[in-house]
Amino acid sequence: MSKISKFFKGGGSAASKGRGGPSPQEALARLRETEEMLRKKQEYLESRIERELAVARQHGTKNKRAALQALKRKKRYEKQLSQIDGTLSTIEFQREALENSHTNTEVLKNMGYAAQAMKKVHENMDLNKIDDLMQDITEQQDVAQEISDAISNRAAFGDEFDEDELMAELEELEQEELNKGMRDVRLPSVPSTSLPSRPGKLPPCHFTFLMIKPCSSTRRRAEDEDEMKKLAAWAS
């Protein structure tokens, strides 16, 4: 019996046999060990093939018999190597399938736990009460929106008055004030004294004005200028 047959037939632990078969973790561990063993056998056969090739080259036609024996051994090793390659491919496929099955089993188990939890959560829920609650929430949201819209709208106080009429009345009041101001303005009188014929020669009264001692006509002119300044200030 080969090592692989012994491994799969008699290599199981007593605990696994007592449970009726190995667990997925145990089976995966055994498959990985088998893969490691076969890869080591591959390395050994590859080294033997290289060694037999070296022997065949060494003897060549000088010792044809020894060279042919080395090539025959190389062929046997190559055949074993090819068989191991096929075995490794089969074991890798089985290991991947087992890993996927184990993953799917764990996923389904966890999904079952989640379904049970959801069922437990929904045990105390009444769909009719939920519908009523959602309707109440919707109605309250509508009421809150109406209140918000009413508060945010601009108050319509005083909108019954026409702005054009108010502006026309305001313009009339301004015109009345302007006319009243024009009636109160006293225009300056024409000076009685004549202007000097040549610059530099001023009448005595003008000389006294420059000396901050104004005469009567100069004082009246100053008052008129004050009135004009007041009028200009009022108009602006």
UniProtKB/TrEMBL annotation:
GO cellular component terms listed in the entry, alphabetical order: cytoplasmic side of plasma membrane; cytosol; ESCRT III complex; late endosome membrane; multivesicular body
Keywords carried by this UniProt record: Coiled coil, Cytoplasm, Endosome, Membrane, Protein transport, Transport
Residue ranges crossing the lipid bilayer per the database entry: none
Keyword Metal-binding carried by entry: no
GO process terms (BP): late endosome to vacuole transport via multivesicular body sorting pathway; protein transport; vesicle budding from membrane
UniProt subcellular location: Cytoplasm, Cytosol; Late endosome membrane
Annotated region (Disordered), positions in chain: 1-25
Domain of life according to the entry: Eukaryota
Compositionally biased region (Gly residues): 9-21
Membrane topology recorded in Swiss-Prot or TrEMBL: Peripheral membrane protein
The family this protein is said to belong to: Belongs to the SNF7 family.
Protein name from the UniProt record: CHM4C protein
